[in-house]
Design a protein that fits this description.
Blueprint: H1 16-25, H2 28-37, E1 49-57, E2 63-68, E3 73-77, E4 88-97, H3 103-107, E5 111-114, E6 118-122, E7 125-127, H4 128-135, E8 142-146, E9 149-151, H5 160-166, E10 172-173
Parallel strand pairs: 1-4, 4-5, 4-6, 6-8, 7-9, 8-10
Antiparallel strand pairs: 1-2, 2-3
Protein name: F-box domain-containing protein
Length: 174
């Protein structure tokens, strides 16, 4: 016999298939809200996302650095090191990407929620859709773009006014 505790979901007026469908199809923020306020969604053995306060690439040349909310730091080597993370990322504060020019394309598929307040891109070439995805939360207040370009899919440069529309609360732009 194992010492594992079994969590019993209370009976519900909803059919269990609908609850399962809601759990599978809810976006991460909605799922988090459901888990906090509804007893029918508290049967996860662990939170399904890797929540980090800070993500850096290029911290020590070709390495990833992830800092969790409780201050733990994780390192992964190489551009493919992010593949070692089994869960989707929920980034809450800082995203720093430098060195490797297309690293943005590597990390975006691994991000479930990007609630960043600070975005630093050094030597990056990214599509406007990628920039919009990283700044979609509307929480970004600091942007640092060092020798980085933001272009449309047809390779035309994005004008600064469209960049500012994506970050309405920006206070620092360098």
């Amino acid at each position: 016999m194992s010492n594992q505790q079994f969590i019993h979901i209370p009976s519900s007026d909803f059919p269990s298939d609908i609850l399962k469908w809601m759990k599978i199809n809810a976006n991460p923020k909605m799922l988090f809200t459901l888990m906090k306020c509804c007893k029918y969604f508290q049967d996860f053995p662990e939170f399904p996302y890797f929540v980090v306060k800070e993500v850096q690439y290029g911290f020590k040349r070709d390495n990833w650095l992830f800092q969790t909310l409780d201050g733990k730091v994780y390192f992964y080597e190489g551009t493919q090191g992010i593949e070692n993370i089994g869960k989707k990322l929920w980034i809450t504060e800082i995203l720093v990407l430098s060195a490797f020019p297309k690293i943005v394309s590597c990390i975006i598929p691994k991000i479930a929620v990007c609630d960043i307040k600070s975005l630093s891109l050094q030597f990056q070439n990214l599509a406007f859709n990628e920039f919009k995805y990283l700044t979609a939360s509307g929480n970004v207040i600091d942007i640092f773009l060092r020798e980085s370009t933001i272009k449309y899919e047809n390779d035309e440069q994005v004008f600064i006014d469209l960049i500012f529309k994506c970050v309405p609360n920006v206070e620092t732009f360098k």
